[in-house]
Every structure is written in C-alpha cells, then in structure tokens.
Amino acid sequence: MKLNKLTRFPYPVLQDETDDYLSGGFSVDLEVIESLKTGGLRIECSIGLSEEVLLGFVQSGSAKILLFVTCLETYFNEPFEVAYPSGSIEVERGKLAGRVKVLSLIVSNEELKGFRSDNFHPDYENAFFALSSGSIIAVGDDFTIDVGREKLAPVESIFSLAKGKDIPTGEIRVDLDEEKITILSEVKTYESIYKIRNSAAGKYILMSSIYLPAIMEVLSALQQDASYYEDRRWFSAFDARCSLEGIDYKKGEILESAQKILRAPLVNLFRFMEEVE
After folding, report:
1. What is the β-pairing status of strands 173-175 and 181-185?
2. CB–CB of 142/104 below 8 Å?
3. Hey, how many other C-beta atoms are within 10 angstroms of the C-beta on 167?
4. pLDDT tens sequence across 168-191
5. How far apart are CA 169 and CA 135, in angstroms?
6. In whole angstroms, what is the distance from residue 167 CA to residue 232 CA?
7. CA 228 – CA 97 distance, rounded (Å)
8. What pLDDT was estimated at residue 113?
C-alpha cells in the first residue's frame, strides 16, 4: 500500500494539504527510542485531534489511529494501531534499518454508510458518503527517522587520508568519488598530518584544520547535486549524521552546518588545551 500526504480521495479527508474540512486538525508528535543493545525501536506518540466528528469516531471505536511505518531498505511496510491521546509501538530488531518513513492516519474501523459533517467544505454540503471499513478519513504528520548505529559512528570514520599529485605543500583536496571521502595532500603534508594525528591533541587540531574544510566541501557538493553521490558508501553515514544533527544538507549555511556535524570542533580543542595546562 503506497501512501503519502499528496494522495487524494473521492470523499472528504482531514489533512493540511486540502480544505475538505472548514476547521479542526490532526497532529502527532513522536519520540523515537532506539535500543543499541537490542536493536529494537520504540516510538511513543502524543496525538492531537480537534475535529469533533472524527474525534467521536475514534472515541467510540468506529475509527482507529495508525502509524504506517515504511523502510525501503528492509522492505518493511506495516501499519500499527496506537491509542488516543497517547500510545506507543515497538518494532523488533532487524525489521528497520537506515531511512524510515512514518505516516500518521485515521482509518474507519467499520462501515460508515452515512458519513457526513457540518464541518465539510461547502462543496460537500448535504453530501453523504458510504465508506467501507479500512477507509482513510484523516492524514496527519509524516516523519523521517534514521535507524541503526551508522549515524553514531565517529564522523572521521567515513574519511581516509591519501597522497595526491600536483597539490601545493600545506594544502588539501577532497575526492568524493571513492567509497570513503578521501582527503588528498602531497607527501610532506601527508606525513605531517599523520604525525599530528598521533599526538595527544592531534584529533582536536585536525578536526578544525582538516575535517572542517573537508566537510564544507562535501556540503557544497551535496547542495549542487546530492543524487550523484547516493551510491557511495560514505553517503548513507553522512546523511544519517546530518539527520541526527537536524541538518538539511541541501540548503543552509555550509560553515554553520559543518561545525554542527563536528559538534563545535574549536570548543573541543579549547577544552582540551585547558585540561592539559
């Protein structure tokens, strides 16, 4: 069953994208709890429903609230019923991985032979609808979440250092066409980077001097054409990290986003230097 917020129906449906109803709304707030120990996923939700007819259906049991969970990577596509005004669902380990879509719906639990409301748009004035059990009568919020350990991996794990040709001493270049984001430098610079890397403060220095500009280069490339890099192994991890940090890499300030991905590298460097003084 393929659903999205742009799906249209031959009868009034409460949703933000249409004016089938004069007033009222249906909203869902989610809290996602992922167990890295068991691999299971728990979604807790708080539901707002202010359209009186539909609220009456839900409270009487004539309709139910569903979260429709879809994961293309694992071919998972299942609805879960949740209680009103708050409830939760659990998905067992292995069912979900990577990008997961969650769409909230209200669905009839029985036949609604004389479905009408004074709250319908005037186009439906005096109209009655016969809906079968399982008919969608409201479409609420949809969410995208990332599932799995990938988003928690150190960001530097998706990078590799390599020697490059025709690069001035002290400069770097970034190659995004490999399975890892490759930071290239000439031999002397490459050897100096490795020396710094193995020092106590090395990680903190390189975050600001090497990884920060490299990530800015990645963000710039993704803003131009993210689809070109989607088959690279580094892309899914970078995409998940951006999602975790609330970053839309297709737009926004590149420098600000890069610092957020690295979780304020200068602050971490200053903190380290204070600790060793």
Report:
1. antiparallel
2. yes
3. 16
4. 999 999 999 998 999 999 999 999
5. 66
6. 24
7. 22
8. 87
The Cα 81–Cα 83 span in angstroms is: 7
* Alpha-carbon distances of 74 from 45, 69, 147, 253, rounded to whole Å: 23, 11, 11, 33
For the chain, the first-to-last Cα distance in angstroms comes to 61
133 token code pair: 């059990």
* pLDDT, tens digit (0-9, with 9 covering 90-100), for 8-33: 788 999 998 888 999 999 989 888 88
pLDDT by residue (tens digit) across 218-234? 999 999 999 999 988 88
CA 76/CA 97 separation, integer angstroms: 10
Residues 3/228/218/192 CA torsion (nearest 10 deg): 140
Indicate whether 6 pLDDT > 70. no
Which pair of tokens denotes residue 246? 């609330």
Which residues, including other chains, have CB under 8 Å from residue 124's CB and lie 6 or more apart? 12, 20, 116
- Domains of the chain, CATH where assigned: 26-147 (2.60.40.10), 152-276 (no CATH)
Question: Model pTM?
Answer: 0.58
How far, in Å, CA of 161 to CA of 153, rounded?
18
Bridge partners, 78 (sequence order): 69
In this prediction, residue 277 carries a pLDDT of: 66
Judge contact between 268 and 207, C-beta under 8 A: yes
Structure tokens at 192: 């100096």
